[in-house]
Amino acid sequence: ESPHPKYGGTIYHLETNVKEHPGGLRDLHVLPWLGLLGVRNGGAPDDRNLRDAREFLLTVRTALHRNSGRDNNLLSFEAQETLSADPAAWMREYFRHAREVFRALGHALHKAEISGSGLLSQFRERRARLSNHEFTISHERLLLREPGLFETDAGAPMRLLQFAARHNVRLAEDTEKKLQKALALFQRQAEPWRAWKELLSLRGCASAFRALHEAGLMAALIPEWERIDALVTRDFYHRYTVDEHTIVALENLDALAEAGGDPVKQRFSALLWEAQDAALLRLALLLHDIGKGGGSGEHAQESVAIAAKVLDRLNAPAADRETVTF
């Protein structure tokens, strides 16, 4: 049984457990075990990123044990300060290594599932009925029907994200690789604001951003995202890194649509439905902390300035720009 749900299924905890949390050593150990079970590239021994991650994580765990004199795997704020003179920057490096492990394990487990013939695999394959002429779903992963689609159509990457948002589906490994090679297409879309508004109008758009986030490709959609990628804010008001905090906030916003019998959620759900344009609300939330990481200390005003640049680049109408920056 996977321990990931116990930890929210995210690697980006500010005080993380180097052994137990997603992207940690337990995940790293599963990879060669899958390789022994015959999963192709399960152990990924030739992956330089994984080798670097393995060395980093093992070094961290060894240092934690030496410093505490016991089997201690928690990277608390105090432990981070002991291990680095610049703990925030050092933890950013940790999260990027953990992301490589987390992605590799997800892809390996997917390969293990599709190589089997169990009932779960057969059930998930029924999702292929949701396919269209451009994209298809196989074993809960999104694939391109035409391998060269991104090479000929600048609007295809955004349509792929819209499809992922509608069906809450993650990207296949091959799709991630093709998308990574097509990064420049994000900046050459015809009528970019129309495509963005369509994506942001979808209640499941957070799942599309999550898929990009897990692949380390959010900066391809919004170059300024690099400022907050795996960025650590060391305080007791946040549980996650700035990028993860932003994605989780979007997911929680969408979750308000199904408030159930919770009176607090019902109250905020009613407020959400009063919003005249949910797409603009989601974009404002996506950009609300993007000014962090600049070193000025005035991240709110910096976020507004960056949001204005993003909106200019997307050719957003003046009224929409005013609403988002407000």
Structure description:
With 326 residues, the chain is mainly alpha-helical. The protein is built from 16 helices and five strands. The protein has helices at 25-36, 48-68, 77-83, 87-114, 119-125, 149-152, 156-167, 173-181, 192-201, 205-214, 218-221, 242-255, 263-274, 278-287, 299-313, 318-325; strands at 16-17, 74-75, 135-138, 141-144, 170-171. It has a three-stranded mixed sheet. It is globular and about 60 Å long. The N and C termini lie far apart (45 Å). The mean pLDDT is 86.
List keywords for this structure.
326 residues, mainly alpha, three-stranded mixed β-sheet, two-stranded antiparallel ribbon, 16 helices, 56% helix, 4% strand, globular
Please render the helix and strand layout as text.
Elements: E1 16-17, H1 25-36, H2 48-68, E2 74-75, H3 77-83, H4 87-114, H5 119-125, E3 135-138, E4 141-144, H6 149-152, H7 156-167, E5 170-171, H8 173-181, H9 192-201, H10 205-214, H11 218-221, H12 242-255, H13 263-274, H14 278-287, H15 299-313, H16 318-325
Parallel strand pairs: 4-5
Antiparallel strand pairs: 1-2, 3-4
Helix pairs in contact: 1-4, 2-4, 3-4, 7-9, 7-10, 9-14, 10-12, 12-14, 14-16
Number of extended strands: 5
Q: Which structural class is indicated by helix and strand composition?
A: mainly alpha
Sketch the topology as an H/E string, one letter per element: EHHEHHHEEHHEHHHHHHHHH
The rounded Rg comes to 21 Å
Indicate the mean pLDDT: 86
Strand content: under 5%
